[in-house]
Amino acid sequence: MDSTLSGADQFRGPWWLLQVLSSTDFLLDTSHPLVLQSLDIPSDVYREMLCNLEAGFCIVQIVLEDCQAVDGIFRLTNASFGRHLRLGSVVGESLCDIMPDDGPQWIKRYGGVALSGQRVHFEARALCRWYSVEVMRVGAPEGRLLGVLFMDVTERKRMERRLAESEVRFNILADGLPMPVWVFDAQGGMRFVNTAYGEFFGVDLSSGTVPEWSMVLHPEDVLIFEFKLSAALKTQSAFRALVRARRYDGQWRWIEMSATPRYSPDGHFIGLTGSSPDVTERLEIELAREQLLKSERAARNEAENMARLKDEFLSTLSHELRTPLTTILGWSELLLQRIDEQHPCYKGLSVIASSAKVQKRLISDMLDLSSMLLGKMQLKMEVLDLVEQIREVIGLYEPVVDSKGQRLLLRASEMPCLVLGDATRLRQIFENLLSNAIKFTPTDGCIDVEIDADGDSFRVSVTDSGDGIAAEFLPHLFSRFRQADGTTTRCHGGLGLGLAIVQSLVEMHGGYVGATSPGIGKGAMFTVSLLRYVCAIDVADTVICDRRIGSAGDQGEY
């Protein structure tokens, strides 16, 4: 049996029983002083309790020669004594005989207790197990009787070893981290700091002294830290604190302290493990980002406010312009009705009336767009035949198509194509599309209008053989005030609002509008998709109506 002394651990066995024995009279046979005649214990209860203890217990009488302990005789053992040491009955036997190898060192240790009367506690290893042993003198000093109580602490030693190994691994790992790492015990005392901690605070760790947190934290943040630390220790929980700390160069830096509970292998709370990385740069970046976002929000609000003011201004301006323009257009048309074409003023009045109509259309577009942007446009929804609406639009543009010698094809179902919409606004959609197709298609060009069913929608496509659209401009086609040719010398006028209005009106009807083009000079196709009013409608055979305008006698039907 080899042993090691341990003065740090406090054995929690039933030593109060030994205290009772220490006051008990042990009578020796005077005819043979080395033999114990009897043990007179005041109460059989104590004897029974000692015998039934889980801890091993024995009473040993020390044999002296020339005031030196030379042996020990077992006078009493309990059942656990034999079970722990794997021995049978040893009462009356010599300690040196039972343990010839380790006996002398035990005799020396026990003899010291018998002579001095001082109680000792140590841990010893026997039979591959660890035991916590306590020895004290019992009875009268001249009896040289010792009470020995021991408990198996192998599991505790194993857990302590695992904990120590774990702490070594943790310390090695923590020393390799670039941020300060620290460990508190269960009372809040600093148990460990890593190398980065010493470098950050300018502490010589070899001196073994580490400054308290209150000495390195900003005075305004000390109470915050102490409150959170105290609460975490009390509740055995994690904590987080954003505080300022003085770095080795005297600068105040923001550190984010975060800690988690530490537990021993047997589940006992043993403190906190934490880190405190320097987050000053991160906070500065977050602050700058917040200021940037604040500036961006202010700029966006200002831009939205300016856009609203602009829309209101355009609406007001359009109303103000329309009033005198209506007077000009009305009087010019009235005068044209009163004079014949040979009159010297006829041509001038015709130009005035034509220009006034163009100006009226531009103003109407501006008013419509303003109403949409301000959310003031309302639709009067009713069930409409989409084919009839488009026929009416085509009829309006018959004189223009006739004058340019263009060819117009309408392909539509014989059955009604019912949709839910505002008649005026639906006609406005197709007036814009057909007007653009006529405007950008050269003389003798072809324009196709096709209406067909597409699932639960009707699709209307307007295809022309005109100027076409550049691929890079297609994404901007429906933007406000955007034109493919934005120069002052462009061939076609307008504000660039027509298609933006078309898109808004189609979307207000719950539909979709898109455009495609093979490229410049290859024409374009605009497609409008509107939901059916009735889901189940059979699409009849398509009828092709060919109308060529501009050739005398060639009168087809739409």
Automatic annotation (TrEMBL):
A single GO molecular function term of this UniProt record? protein histidine kinase activity
**Pfam families from the UniProt entry:** HATPase_c, HisKA, PAS_4
The answer to whether the entry has keyword Transferase is: yes
Which keywords appear in this protein's UniProt record, sorted alphabetically?
Coiled coil, Kinase, Phosphoprotein, Transferase, Two-component regulatory system
Q: Which residues form the PAC domain?
A: 239-291
Chemical reaction(s) catalysed: ATP + protein L-histidine = ADP + protein N-phospho-L-histidine
Enzyme Commission (EC) number: 2.7.13.3
Domain Histidine kinase, by residue range, is 316-534
Q: Sorted alphabetically, which PROSITE patterns does this protein's record hold? A: HIS_KIN, PAC, PAS
**Which residues are in coiled coils?**
285-312
Reading the lineage from the top rank, the first entry is: Bacteria
Outline the extent of the PAS domain.
166-236
GO BP term, pick one: phosphorelay signal transduction system
PANTHER family reported in the protein's UniProt record: OSMOSENSING HISTIDINE PROTEIN KINASE SLN1 (PTHR43047:SF72), TWO-COMPONENT HISTIDINE PROTEIN KINASE (PTHR43047)
State the name under which the record lists this protein.
histidine kinase
Q: Which organism is it from?
A: Xylella fastidiosa
The root-end lineage is: Bacteria, Pseudomonadati, Pseudomonadota, Gammaproteobacteria, Lysobacterales
